[in-house]
């Protein structure tokens, strides 16, 4: 075990310990009296001494010491009871520590690092044991440190933590790695140096295990263009798997919502746990291996032996139990597995003598599992899930119920076979190319031989859902599947047979519901119907076209997130040739939702990921090709159609179906293998080509030369090759030989390796797509703003991060719900008001002293042109551009427009009855002379306040004004200062207050306040004089001109409808000479405000003073996460 480092003087222990191994930094010693030889008399005395001592003080017989060459001090770091235990610690030090110590310059640094690492290992072991015992105390302590060090929002869920070393440059820092739902965090504090790292999972480009000269094995993280390495983890594989799962979860939830399934264990980001992630990963692996529906979860795993009748021996493996399936997979290399649906189980018997249980299934077959540790409980579990018991009576009743189910199923089948039903019940190949039994040509004879081989296989290994899958099954697949059995085997290998069996009548209902619907997907389907295998007779008739339309429309109705994508029509048309219509539908479900995840969506992420996997395999298996063509992106572009259509679009149909056979059995692995075989076959020609066009020609000619010499299809059904006039000059390649060669050369590719490579490359593919989106957005926005590309890049990163910060801790964030990767670039990331308010407060050029949300709300309403409650990046940048780079007029116009109707008000506006009341309306920081200046400019007689009070309180948001503004923006109408409406008294007062707030904290604050007060007083006097002159020359009320504005009329009407305003007006009339003054509001135009402010040099210089946007962005980057915590 590892020990807390303690200082030891070795010179006092020479006679008690014997050195077994040593090197420059470590010494392994054995206690005299133990081990080989016993140590003679000295060993006997030492052993006696150890025995006589108190039992709590006994010394372990082995230990490891740490020392440095220039020091006489030794530190005990490990001890062991057995030689194997201590040697295991020694080997770990040699592999993980020795190479690292060479980078340190001083002995003190070496000793400090070793001590820190050993303490981390001790804490790691203690934490592991506590986790196994479900003791939360240690985890609670780690959670407190996590919250203290990183100051993340309290909603952030810590999943797990590990002791490790983080490489900062060439020097490692020993510390703690914390993995939470949304962040990877590291903290270290050694010798007064603090290292703190916070990386969100959605910012990662790479996550992989690596090794080099210094680090034997480490975890590499690439984020923000920086490489981060974490090493010396006690459980590196476990750590990497958890990191991989968290990164994948974050990517699916935030970027790729179409692939995010609402799994109960992962649906809520606040409830993510290490155990839940592990269970989800195991269930996903279980479903993928056995091709089970996505609703199945792995519940139990038992080791056992299964009696294999065809081999006459017991094979070791594991029983995997889910809600509706009992599965077994061998572990002895025989590649044998079997899937038993619970619906097929008739009885379960157990034998206590050999701890065995026998499962009887339909078809008079029995499977015997022996040496099952908890066989009794497993048998009871299977019985309960199958609805049967050990008693014969219950089994008989169960059989009766099953018989009724079969009768119901037969009725459904009869209904489906009814000629009046629209759904076709025959594969198109049997309709357009029925087999001639009397035809005895060589191809048909070979086809009969294939069928006979499969019938023999069925008799030995079973047929249907409970068939054994073995190496022989794959061998038969490689040779080719008979035409008559192709549909049945596709259903079996893909798992679609289970989907259809558990959803009787589902497809018929979908067809009825989807017929007649008109959507974008149905329009695209109609457009592509006649492009699907147009040379095949089945799709030259209404029968095939109608069946294709029904299947594609039903699937688009079932899964609107995918709807319809190109290449689905080609794949579905081939499925319809060999499977019944309903079977073809369930095959399409299996392909789109399980076997090729994320392929058929707007961004074809799955296909792009598999292209990256294909590139990795090319580098690994075809080094000669890599040396000649260093840029492998060519193969990515060429192979896209291979993956999307399973080679159907490049091979003749009679050859492509053999590829589909292998795909349904081995998944994407078969496509990758065949792709490598194609490149290998054309290696010499590709190496000698001079450009990409020549390489494409070579591959096209090769695909044209691929044939299927065993195909029984007549020439009228076989697909003619495109551009195949000179085909005779090329050597024909048989598809069966090509597939066999692919399995022989590249069959060692494991599905687990492909899955791991998929996860690794998915991060890079997603981030590449996101980077492309960013570049497109910046290119569009840069045409309307004066920020340079670098500044826009920084602003986009902040904007996008703020979007994700609103999504981290909830599933119902408006920004997350509205995020759609298929939308236009500018609309993919948007901010709601709360997120906008946080980001705007970080980037606004002036420091506001009042509540930030007030001005933020006004700005948000102004720039949210379509009034959907969300602001996109372009709208955000245009507002910032005006505030940072706009002219004095533009900045002032922006502030002026903030206060126009329907600008929101923070609350009820009080009527000032005295100077004391006016002070209550002013910013709290205004005191003394500043207050006097403002009071002089704002204090107006009370009747004006009362006339406006009711209209302010009852004001409503005028959506028509925003619609008009939106229409003007569409028409690109240039707004001039004359187009701006006048600002009334209440809005002007608020405008003045905004100016005071902007100037707060400025070195020339006093001068600016006086300037605003002077302008305000001047405008009020001008308006008062102008209004009195107008009243003196205006006709009586009865002859009032029609030119009176609607705003004045509505204001007067509203004021006169309330008793309060009526009473107030009457009191004012009795006190003042002008009887109509209280009924008329004063207002200002933007031109008046602009002209007045231009006369104040202090104000002009303030707004024209440049503000460093780069410094603001840097500050915002640091404070963004903390601000989100407090918001």
Automatic annotation (TrEMBL):
GO terms for cellular component: cytosol. GO terms for molecular function: calcium ion binding; GTPase activator activity. Residues 851-886 form the EF-hand domain. Involved in vesicular recycling, probably as a RAB11B GTPase-activating protein. Interacts (via domain Rab-GAP TBC) with RAB11B (in GTP-bound form). Its main location: cytoplasm. The gene is TBC1D8B. One of its GO terms (biological process) is glomerular filtration. SMART domains: GRAM, TBC. This is TBC1 domain family member 8B. Keywords: Calcium, Cytoplasm, GTPase activation, Metal-binding, Repeat. It is found in: Cytoplasm, Cytosol. It comes from Amphiprion ocellaris.
